[in-house]
Write a structure and sequence with these properties.
By secondary structure, the chain is of the alpha+beta class. 16% of the residues lie in helices and 34% in strands. It has helices at 4-7, 19-24, 98-107, 112-116, 161-171; strands at 11-15, 34-38, 43-44, 51-53, 59-61, 63-69, 86-93, 96-97, 121-122, 127-128, 139-144, 147-153, 179-181, 189-190, 196-203, 206-217. The strands form 4 sheets. The chain has a 6-stranded mixed sheet with strand order 2-1-13-6-7-10. A 5-stranded mixed sheet has the order 4-16-15-11-12, with no helix packed on it. It has a 3-stranded antiparallel sheet with strand order 8-5-14.
Length: 227
Amino acid sequence: MASIRANARKVVCIGRNYADHVTELNNTRPKQPFFFLKPSSSILPPRSGPVLAPKGVNLHYEVELGCIIGKEVRDLPDNDTALDAVEAYCLSIDMTARNVQEEAKKKGLPWSIAKGFDTFCPVSEIIPKASIPDPHNLDLSLTVNEQMRQSDNTNLMLFQIPRQLSDISKVMTLEKGDLILTGTPKGVGPVKVGDVMKAVLSSGGKELASIEIGVENKGGKYEFAET
């Protein structure tokens, strides 16, 4: 199976899909799945280097289960047959420039900058679909410098994966290789240069995937400034 980055035409991210995460960021609970895009260039494959923190950015982690689409689909039904479109899974960290996002939200602007920097989507090795018979009963966790920050089960999703895929595919065609990030549980927070994150996906105490990755300065010409 080829790499996630090589095959993904787009990364579609479900926002506000765990109730406690909605509360911790003082957001409104959605009435239907809410989603946004990250560029495929933000995908950071395993062993491809650190997350790069842009100048002036308050960098946050968000651990998520990822679904890899196996065929072109549109208008999927909101039932378990929608899972037939999923070829495999992965673990991911949706890195977010939180201060950039907060400014965009206040001004009614898009979030693309906040979510789209290079290295802002670290992913694990691909997990065969057969290894995850029930994607709605998995344990997600993330530590920073060995301190637990996020730890919850995917059974807490407000909208399960079939509903997510159904709603997305009513709007845009999902293509083979596309990556769907299914939302993050509570506990999101900042990381700084020198920190090391470790994300783990497990089922019944058995580890299915992990990401261990550091944070370094991005360098380059970008520096956050008010829009």
